[in-house]
Amino acid sequence: MNGLQDWPEPIVRVQSLSESGLPMIPDRYVKPLSDRPSSNRPENGDANIPIIDLTGLTDDETELSRSTMDQISSACRDWGFFQVVNHGVSPGLMDQARETWRGFFHLPMEIKQAYANSPKTYEGYGSRLGIEKGAILDWSDYYYLHYLPLTLKDYNKWPGSPDYCREVIDEYGKELVKLGGRIMKVLSINLGLNESHLQNAFGGENIGACVRVNFYPKCPQPDLTLGLSSHSDPGGLTILLPDHEVPGLQVRKDGRWITVKPARHAFIVNIGDQIQLQPQTQSGTLNLEPESKSFEFKVLSNANYKSVEHRVIVNSGMERLSLAFFYNPKSDIPIKPVRELVSADKPALYPPMTFDEYRLFIRLNGPKGKSQVESLKSPRCH
């Protein structure tokens, strides 16, 4: 996609560093003081993202109570994040998917290396985001793969071990596509639109979908680093299967970091940049240079719903694994704000661009909070 065939420097697997028993992390993983968990302590108390019961939102019955719809609307506007229970995905399949991927990360390194990725597509086994040489890195490894469209779905790039790994990934993906479609209907209705409006804006049946499995090994100095730096998700909707035994996800709320307390067999859902950002008509082409600040994004909801900054902390006593399923627009569709949500009082915030253009912009830069989204804003909105 971006023409790069290899990483700018040799890749080091974080899991190998962790298992070597080193007492201190290498300098490449030490975050600036302002970004360290030790310098920016979460203020939790009893705070947690909303937990919403989706009973009734199934293939056969897509009616939710007005109260539940209102809960989802408030969560999207106030948090950009919420947990869902009774969502229709089998708890057994959720556990099987998580443990199958855990099995992959504990395979011998020579087996995992056969699936090593490159910055060209990111698909496969990876250990860094962004292409800046000498960048401060995150304490994590990952596996990224395409699920939809079918033209990008290549089983040969999916791990062949442990046994039945590909079958489990496939079944899990089918269920998450269904759940994503149901949630999109609710978001559309809550915005006062036809229930299929957001889905059609994403390409109808021709959406994009991909999976990133995040593996956060034990870290000897967790207060100095992050498992995943602060960012907002570039896609449409993220459905995360967390490690309910090891909290790590933090959401930024009112300037504070809140550590999410995962409910068992719940998914964590969050709004991505493409729903916050929907570009309107504006001439020009996107400058994809890493330091470009010339364009901004508009969400389909024209910022009625927000994509929210989040990050991941690590710990010294336990590894952590999570599965992020990204429900995205078709890669070549220009994303722009819904006409009904734009007015003289609330003009379009972002210019149009395709999802592929935006994803490339993010990949070149790596995770950098919300600054990349803000840099894309229309000049008249600053």
UniProtKB/TrEMBL annotation:
This protein is called: Fe2OG dioxygenase domain-containing protein
Which organism's genome codes for this protein?
Gossypium lobatum
| Listed GO MF terms | metal ion binding; oxidoreductase activity
Keyword Metal-binding on this protein?
yes
Q: Which SUPFAM superfamilies match?
A: Clavaminate synthase-like
Its domain of life reads Eukaryota
Similarity field: Belongs to the iron/ascorbate-dependent oxidoreductase family.
Q: Does the keyword Metal-binding apply?
A: yes
- Output the InterPro entries linked to this UniProt entry: DIOX_N, IPNS-like_FE2OG_OXY, IPNS-like_sf, Oxoglu/Fe-dep_dioxygenase_dom, Plant_2OG-oxidoreductases
UniProt KW keywords: Iron, Metal-binding, Oxidoreductase
Q: Per the database record, which ranges form the Fe2OG dioxygenase domain?
A: 206-329
